[in-house]
Amino acid sequence: MKTKPPADEEKSTVRTYDLVLEYLKGQILEGKLTLGAKLPSERSLMAELGLSRNSVREALRQLENMGFVRSVHGQGSFLVNEAGQGFSSILSMMLLLRQSDRGEFLTLRESLEAAAYERAVRLAPPQPLLEMEQAVQAMEQAQEPGQLEQAESRFHRSLIEAGENQLIAAIMEALSSQGDLYRRETLAQLDEATRTPLLDTHRRILKAIQTNDTSLGRAALAEHFQLIQ
Q: Where do the HTH gntR-type domain residues begin and end (predicted)?
Protein backbone atom coordinates (compact mmCIF):
# COMPACT_ATOMS: atom_id res chain seq x y z
CA MET A 1 0.00 0.00 0.00
CA LYS A 2 1.34 3.39 -1.04
CA THR A 3 1.80 5.71 1.92
CA LYS A 4 1.24 9.44 1.90
CA PRO A 5 4.44 11.54 2.08
CA PRO A 6 5.08 13.27 5.40
CA ALA A 7 3.61 16.76 5.71
CA ASP A 8 7.04 18.40 5.81
CA GLU A 9 8.01 16.63 2.58
CA GLU A 10 4.84 17.89 0.87
CA LYS A 11 5.56 21.43 2.04
CA SER A 12 9.13 21.09 0.81
CA THR A 13 7.95 20.07 -2.66
CA VAL A 14 5.53 22.99 -2.86
CA ARG A 15 8.15 25.40 -1.55
CA THR A 16 10.71 24.20 -4.10
CA TYR A 17 8.32 24.72 -6.98
CA ASP A 18 7.33 28.18 -5.66
CA LEU A 19 10.97 29.19 -5.24
CA VAL A 20 11.87 28.35 -8.82
CA LEU A 21 8.67 29.92 -10.19
CA GLU A 22 9.15 33.15 -8.24
CA TYR A 23 12.80 33.31 -9.29
CA LEU A 24 11.87 32.97 -12.97
CA LYS A 25 9.09 35.58 -12.59
CA GLY A 26 11.64 37.95 -11.08
CA GLN A 27 14.02 37.36 -13.98
CA ILE A 28 11.23 38.10 -16.46
CA LEU A 29 10.20 41.31 -14.66
CA GLU A 30 13.82 42.49 -14.64
CA GLY A 31 14.13 41.82 -18.35
CA LYS A 32 16.76 39.12 -17.88
CA LEU A 33 14.52 36.39 -19.30
CA THR A 34 12.29 36.67 -22.35
CA LEU A 35 10.02 34.27 -24.20
CA GLY A 36 12.09 31.62 -25.95
CA ALA A 37 15.19 32.32 -23.86
CA LYS A 38 17.27 29.52 -22.40
CA LEU A 39 16.85 29.15 -18.64
CA PRO A 40 19.81 29.16 -16.27
CA SER A 41 21.41 25.75 -15.94
CA GLU A 42 20.36 23.36 -13.20
CA ARG A 43 23.69 24.03 -11.49
CA SER A 44 23.06 27.80 -11.56
CA LEU A 45 19.57 27.38 -10.12
CA MET A 46 20.92 25.09 -7.41
CA ALA A 47 23.51 27.67 -6.41
CA GLU A 48 21.15 30.65 -6.67
CA LEU A 49 18.29 29.09 -4.72
CA GLY A 50 20.12 26.69 -2.43
CA LEU A 51 18.29 23.65 -3.76
CA SER A 52 19.31 20.11 -4.59
CA ARG A 53 19.54 18.92 -8.19
CA ASN A 54 16.52 16.66 -7.72
CA SER A 55 14.46 19.55 -6.34
CA VAL A 56 15.36 21.79 -9.28
CA ARG A 57 14.57 19.05 -11.78
CA GLU A 58 11.20 18.34 -10.16
CA ALA A 59 10.30 22.04 -10.19
CA LEU A 60 11.26 22.37 -13.86
CA ARG A 61 9.23 19.26 -14.65
CA GLN A 62 6.17 20.81 -13.02
CA LEU A 63 6.67 24.03 -14.98
CA GLU A 64 7.00 21.99 -18.17
CA ASN A 65 3.72 20.21 -17.41
CA MET A 66 2.09 23.62 -16.99
CA GLY A 67 3.38 24.76 -20.38
CA PHE A 68 5.89 27.38 -19.22
CA VAL A 69 9.10 25.44 -19.81
CA ARG A 70 10.24 23.21 -22.64
CA SER A 71 13.19 20.88 -22.13
CA VAL A 72 15.28 20.01 -25.19
CA HIS A 73 17.61 17.04 -24.84
CA GLY A 74 21.23 18.14 -24.94
CA GLN A 75 20.35 21.83 -25.09
CA GLY A 76 18.65 22.71 -21.80
CA SER A 77 15.33 24.25 -20.78
CA PHE A 78 13.64 27.18 -22.49
CA LEU A 79 10.94 29.65 -21.45
CA VAL A 80 7.76 29.13 -23.52
CA ASN A 81 4.12 30.13 -23.38
CA GLU A 82 2.14 26.97 -24.10
CA ALA A 83 -0.09 27.16 -21.05
CA GLY A 84 -3.30 28.03 -22.90
CA GLN A 85 -4.36 24.44 -23.53
CA GLY A 86 -3.61 23.41 -19.95
CA PHE A 87 -5.48 26.42 -18.61
CA SER A 88 -8.47 25.60 -20.81
CA SER A 89 -8.48 21.98 -19.66
CA ILE A 90 -8.37 22.96 -15.98
CA LEU A 91 -11.12 25.57 -16.36
CA SER A 92 -13.25 23.15 -18.37
CA MET A 93 -13.04 20.56 -15.59
CA MET A 94 -13.83 23.23 -12.98
CA LEU A 95 -16.96 24.22 -14.89
CA LEU A 96 -18.08 20.61 -15.22
CA LEU A 97 -17.61 20.00 -11.49
CA ARG A 98 -19.31 23.30 -10.67
CA GLN A 99 -22.23 22.27 -12.90
CA SER A 100 -23.19 25.84 -13.75
CA ASP A 101 -26.69 26.18 -15.18
CA ARG A 102 -27.51 27.38 -18.68
CA GLY A 103 -28.24 30.94 -17.56
CA GLU A 104 -24.88 31.35 -15.81
CA PHE A 105 -23.09 29.85 -18.77
CA LEU A 106 -24.73 32.11 -21.35
CA THR A 107 -24.15 35.20 -19.18
CA LEU A 108 -20.43 34.43 -19.08
CA ARG A 109 -20.28 33.64 -22.79
CA GLU A 110 -22.12 36.86 -23.69
CA SER A 111 -19.69 38.94 -21.61
CA LEU A 112 -16.68 37.33 -23.27
CA GLU A 113 -18.05 37.63 -26.79
CA ALA A 114 -19.04 41.25 -26.16
CA ALA A 115 -15.46 42.01 -25.09
CA ALA A 116 -14.08 40.21 -28.15
CA TYR A 117 -16.53 42.08 -30.38
CA GLU A 118 -15.43 45.49 -29.07
CA ARG A 119 -11.83 44.63 -29.92
CA ALA A 120 -12.80 43.15 -33.29
CA VAL A 121 -14.50 46.41 -34.32
CA ARG A 122 -11.25 48.29 -33.64
CA LEU A 123 -8.91 45.72 -35.16
CA ALA A 124 -11.01 44.27 -38.02
CA PRO A 125 -8.49 41.51 -38.85
CA PRO A 126 -9.18 40.28 -42.41
CA GLN A 127 -8.86 36.49 -42.02
CA PRO A 128 -11.30 36.05 -39.09
CA LEU A 129 -13.76 38.37 -40.87
CA LEU A 130 -13.54 36.21 -43.97
CA GLU A 131 -14.21 33.15 -41.80
CA MET A 132 -17.24 34.89 -40.27
CA GLU A 133 -18.57 35.80 -43.71
CA GLN A 134 -18.19 32.22 -44.93
CA ALA A 135 -19.89 30.96 -41.76
CA VAL A 136 -22.89 33.24 -42.35
CA GLN A 137 -23.19 31.93 -45.91
CA ALA A 138 -23.01 28.35 -44.62
CA MET A 139 -25.72 29.09 -42.05
CA GLU A 140 -27.98 30.50 -44.76
CA GLN A 141 -27.50 27.39 -46.90
CA ALA A 142 -27.71 24.82 -44.09
CA GLN A 143 -30.40 22.19 -44.55
CA GLU A 144 -29.70 20.03 -41.52
CA PRO A 145 -29.34 20.96 -37.81
CA GLY A 146 -25.79 19.59 -37.84
CA GLN A 147 -24.78 21.87 -40.71
CA LEU A 148 -26.28 24.89 -38.98
CA GLU A 149 -24.58 23.94 -35.71
CA GLN A 150 -21.17 23.65 -37.38
CA ALA A 151 -21.51 26.97 -39.19
CA GLU A 152 -22.78 28.79 -36.09
CA SER A 153 -19.89 27.44 -34.05
CA ARG A 154 -17.44 28.57 -36.73
CA PHE A 155 -18.92 32.08 -36.68
CA HIS A 156 -18.49 32.52 -32.94
CA ARG A 157 -15.01 31.00 -32.87
CA SER A 158 -14.00 33.42 -35.61
CA LEU A 159 -15.50 36.31 -33.65
CA ILE A 160 -13.32 35.38 -30.68
CA GLU A 161 -10.31 35.08 -32.98
CA ALA A 162 -11.06 38.53 -34.40
CA GLY A 163 -10.79 39.96 -30.89
CA GLU A 164 -7.13 38.90 -30.74
CA ASN A 165 -7.10 38.34 -26.98
CA GLN A 166 -5.40 35.11 -25.89
CA LEU A 167 -7.01 35.04 -22.45
CA ILE A 168 -10.53 35.39 -23.83
CA ALA A 169 -9.71 32.71 -26.40
CA ALA A 170 -8.42 30.33 -23.71
CA ILE A 171 -11.53 30.78 -21.56
CA MET A 172 -13.82 30.31 -24.56
CA GLU A 173 -11.94 27.14 -25.48
CA ALA A 174 -12.58 25.87 -21.97
CA LEU A 175 -16.27 26.63 -22.45
CA SER A 176 -16.45 24.97 -25.86
CA SER A 177 -17.63 21.49 -24.79
CA GLN A 178 -20.53 22.85 -22.76
CA GLY A 179 -21.18 25.49 -25.40
CA ASP A 180 -21.44 22.89 -28.15
CA LEU A 181 -23.95 20.94 -26.07
CA TYR A 182 -26.16 23.99 -25.47
CA ARG A 183 -25.85 25.01 -29.14
CA ARG A 184 -26.95 21.55 -30.27
CA GLU A 185 -29.97 21.64 -27.96
CA THR A 186 -30.96 25.15 -29.06
CA LEU A 187 -30.63 24.62 -32.80
CA ALA A 188 -32.42 21.25 -32.67
CA GLN A 189 -35.51 23.04 -31.34
CA LEU A 190 -35.24 26.00 -33.70
CA ASP A 191 -38.32 26.89 -35.76
CA GLU A 192 -38.45 29.21 -38.76
CA ALA A 193 -39.84 32.07 -36.68
CA THR A 194 -36.68 32.03 -34.54
CA ARG A 195 -34.19 30.92 -37.19
CA THR A 196 -34.72 34.00 -39.37
CA PRO A 197 -33.99 36.62 -36.66
CA LEU A 198 -31.15 34.47 -35.28
CA LEU A 199 -29.44 34.39 -38.68
CA ASP A 200 -30.00 38.12 -38.98
CA THR A 201 -28.15 38.79 -35.72
CA HIS A 202 -25.08 37.10 -37.20
CA ARG A 203 -25.31 39.19 -40.37
CA ARG A 204 -25.56 42.39 -38.33
CA ILE A 205 -22.63 41.48 -36.07
CA LEU A 206 -20.47 40.86 -39.15
CA LYS A 207 -21.65 44.06 -40.86
CA ALA A 208 -20.96 46.06 -37.70
CA ILE A 209 -17.33 44.94 -37.64
CA GLN A 210 -16.92 45.54 -41.38
CA THR A 211 -18.38 49.06 -41.15
CA ASN A 212 -17.02 49.98 -37.72
CA ASP A 213 -20.56 50.42 -36.39
CA THR A 214 -20.12 49.54 -32.72
CA SER A 215 -23.70 50.16 -31.59
CA LEU A 216 -25.17 47.98 -34.36
CA GLY A 217 -23.13 44.98 -33.27
CA ARG A 218 -23.81 45.52 -29.58
CA ALA A 219 -27.55 45.44 -30.19
CA ALA A 220 -27.27 42.40 -32.46
CA LEU A 221 -25.16 40.49 -29.95
CA ALA A 222 -27.60 41.25 -27.13
CA GLU A 223 -30.52 40.13 -29.30
CA HIS A 224 -28.66 36.95 -30.24
CA PHE A 225 -28.32 35.88 -26.62
CA GLN A 226 -31.94 36.76 -25.88
CA LEU A 227 -33.00 34.44 -28.70
CA ILE A 228 -31.00 31.47 -27.42
CA GLN A 229 -31.90 31.79 -23.74
A: 14-82
CATH number of 85-227: 1.20.120.530
53-66 helix and 7-29 helix, angle to the nearest 10 degrees: 70
Q: Kindly report, as residue ranges, where domains of CATH 1.20.120.530 are found in the chain.
A: 85-227
pLDDT by residue (tens digit) across 139-154?
A: 999 988 899 999 999 9
What's the per-residue H, E or C state across 101-126?
Answer: CHHHHHHHHHHHHHHHHHHHHHHCCH
List residues bridging with 31 in a β-sheet.
none
pTM for the full model? 0.69
Rounded CA-CA distance 51/53 in Å is: 7
CATH number belonging to domain 7-79: 1.10.10.10
Q: pLDDT tens, 193-206? A: 899 999 999 999 99
Residues whose CB is less than 8 angstroms from the CB of residue 168 and which lie 6 or more positions away in sequence, other chains included: 112, 115, 116, 160
Instruction: Let me know: does 68 contact 79? Beta carbons within 8 Å.
Output: yes
Asked if 67 and 61 touch (Cβ cutoff 8 Å), the reply is no
CA distance 12 to 18: 10
Q: Which amino acid is at 25?
A: K
What would the pLDDT profile of 29-71 be if each residue is shown by its tens digit?
999 999 999 999 999 999 999 999 998 998 998 888 888 899 9
Those residues whose C-beta lies under 8 Å from the C-beta of residue 184, and which sit 6 or more positions away, are 145, 149
In contact, 155 and 132? CB cutoff 8 Å: yes
